Amino acid sequence: MPRTPTLAIAASAPGPGAAHGGGSGFGYRTRPLRYWTGGTPRCHLRVIEGPEVRATAVTKIDRIDAIIIDVPTVRGHVVSMTTMLTQSVVLVRVRFSDGSEGLGEGASIGGLSYGPESVESVKLAIDTYIAPALVGMDADAIATASAHMEKAVKGNPIARAAVECALWDGLGRRSGLSVAQLFGGRVHDRLPVAWTLANGNSQTDIEEALRMLETRRHRDFKLKIGKRPVKQDIAHVAAIAAAVGDRGTIRVDVNQAWSLTEARYGARGLQEIGCVLIEQPVARDKLAALKALTDGYEIAIMADEVLQGPADAMRVAANRSADVFAVKVCQSGGLKSASDVIAIARAAGIDLYGGTMLESGLGTAAAIQLFATVPEWQFGTEMFGPLLLKDEILAEPLEYKDFSVTVPQGPGIGVTLDDDKVNFYRRDRRSR
Ligand code: MUC
Ligand code: MG
What we know:
Elements: E1 6-11, H1 34-37, E2 44-48, H2 51-54, E3 61-79, E4 82-96, E5 101-107, H3 119-134, H4 142-152, H5 157-175, H6 179-182, E6 190-192, E7 195-197, H7 202-214, E8 220-224, H8 230-244, E9 249-253, H9 260-272, E10 277-279, H10 287-296, E11 300-303, H11 310-318, E12 324-327, H12 329-332, H13 335-348, E13 351-354, H14 361-371, H15 385-388, E14 400-401, E15 404-406, H16 419-425
Parallel strand pairs: 7-8, 8-9, 9-10, 10-11, 11-12, 12-13
Antiparallel strand pairs: 1-2, 3-4, 4-5, 6-15, 14-15
Bound molecules: [(2S)-5-oxo-2,5-dihydrofuran-2-yl]acetic acid and magnesium ion.
The site of magnesium ion has 6 residues, from loops.
């Protein structure tokens, strides 16, 4: 006969530093509830059960909180559509009925100038539509939760990704497995990491590139272009390529700024000076133009903004409209969708590049967990998001050395937040 569960009132409002919930045993740092909930004291009911009951109990999604943080960047990041001085991201914390938690992140760039989602829209989608649709669901049934999200929220891949990531993190922490293990196990302990040169000035970019080479931090450089006339951009890239020489590789990201005519001129000029890749040269809806460039030039053409999930990946792959996919967890709609995008690329013979939305250490670590399970990243990755931020929000920063990043160990995403830093940078701090 199974023992009847005993209902016990665990706490009405945990005190500072109190461990939240029932002994997950992962050493997961927690803070008082008001840290994420704005000080509302809540009553926690916890079921204390015998082991035979616990074995069959379903862990539920109890609560989903999303906050925006704004962290200054180490320098102005000049891209074709905006100049970033701050990066804003959404941090998501999901609490589960067994007391465990999961963390996720949603990020974009330059407000709404980069794509159709901003951090404000991500938070709104989570608070208003995703959280109510998911609370009460089985925490381990991530595929079901994702299907619910897709039904409740059309589009909005970044908002869905942030929550899905937190569900994987929670499942990993509960099971003692890393996200990489949940996705089949890591094939890499380290991943190569490119750096973006985007000072808006050739000489400053050259000095930065040389510093990165000397300190063995990065040797693959992505140059943000598309703001100046094409001819000037080619001269800018040529100057940096000459300074870097054969110590590194040079790629460019146009962020959709060129017409097909400009892109033809740019592709010819860039391949002549030894640039190896052009990322998203034309607008994301100009698939025929992307294909014309892919077919017409030796330089690799990479799809970025056009890839908003597996369906787009399929469209691009079906016509082989790109040579390379920049795989982004946020833009794909989550870790599982990003892994589907990767599968489509691999099946179509399209090369891979691990892309970023300039996430903080949390979102970057989540992507690294997935990317570590993929045998080959022909163009490496750009998992440098936290290095562009003036301050670190992880309790333990990711390790960058020898031109690569180390895949974090430990359950879930494998990182913990520095809650004081998060508290300092959260946007609603100013209104509290
Ligand atoms: C993008 O379009 O690739 C990634 C690196 C970077 O500097 O900007 C982002 C966005
Ligand atoms: Mg890009």
